[in-house]
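User: Run a structure prediction on this.
Assistant: Running it now.
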Amino acid sequence: MQHQNGILHVRAYGEDSGLEEVINYQKAIHKMASDLSIRKVFCDEIDLKYNIGLKDTYKLAEMISKAEVGELIIAIVTRDINYIEATFFELLINSNTVRIKFFPTATAGKMWLDAQP
């Protein structure tokens, strides 16, 4: 993880091994953003295979929605094979404090993130 121009940049690759690993990944991102007083996050997950499935995706979204993480705006780039889970997660997670949007390309994700206040 690194930060530049008020944006935390994260790159994940390989494949997740279960819900607990994904929760720890999310917590690490939220902690780093909080520690740096950054509210915009760009996650490059184009080389990450999602394995947790829709049931665990729901549990993850529910957990993040209930967590007090402060305001976060997160753009995530993912590959086509992950898009069903990504879209489901996006619909579940968006709240007053956490906004997440998935994109097929880094350019689209960065443009959206830059346009956010």
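The beta strands are 2-4, 7-15, 40-49, 72-78, 98-103.
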